Amino acid sequence: MMSPIEMLEVSPGTVAKMVATLVLLLLFALVRFLTCSVVKRNMDDPVRFHHWRRVIVNTLTIVALVLIGRVWIHAFDSLATFLGLASAGLAVAMHDSIANVAGWVFILWRKPFEAGDRIQIGDISGDVIDLRLFQFSVVEVGNWVDADQSTGRIVHIPNSRVLREPVSNYETGFQYIWHEIPVLVTFESDWRKAKQLLSAIAAEKAEHLSRGAEEQIRRAAMRYLIFFRNLTPIVYTSVRGSGVLLTLRYIVKPRERRQSEEALWEAILDAVAAHDDIALAYPTTRFFDPAATPPGPL
Description:
Elements: H1 4-7, H2 12-42, H3 46-73, H4 79-93, H5 95-110, E1 118-121, E2 124-131, E3 135-141, E4 150-158, H6 161-164, E5 167-169, E6 177-185, H7 191-205, H8 211-221, E7 234-240, E8 243-252, H9 257-273
Antiparallel strand pairs: 1-2, 1-5, 2-3, 3-4, 6-8, 7-8
């Protein structure tokens, strides 16, 4: 009677390699569990634990791939034959997986972002919470929620997208962004006085936000070509169809944008309410009635 191995026409050498691969995978899982448990018991900071957990997992993954590759390479007559067959098969059957692994290597090597950074890739924005071999995960911000606050959804993004699409990092290198608040006042308002009020409010509510940016600018300039001469809040003047537009521009950390905007708007609304010669503008429609207009001089 034929054994199951003989019925499947699998050579004993191939069976031994399959068993060795299974043993290596089990050892990999066991070592990962033990090392992560030890690290978790000795670290109270969840951020540090997450960082070292990713280091352990990535290191063990590379070691496991090398060991499994050594097991199966000996099944071929030469390394060239193995590489030729493997590359041809993988290129056809595992194109997406290979691209994801290449993206993973790029993320580890170039570090366009790390766990904890707020990024935007394509039309997805979020805080990076996990980096894996084939994908990374973010907690989504924005979308249907205003001012870059979290939606609560976790989005899993293939690593290959970092090679095909632009990646915006809100925090690496320079941890501040410029934010603008447009304030539209009527043409009848004293816009110069309104501009002075906005400048005073910005100096009180937003100028302290730019103090920590000066040192970051100096550090970022050592790595990137970043130069900002003026980091203090400023108010720009322009004209729109419904009135005079005063744009308050200031620097802020991405995660503090909504809170800072709320504080500024409350101060602006209080200032406008306290001055009768300043009024906020909005789109209006005016009608002209010729019959109600008194006749002019002959």
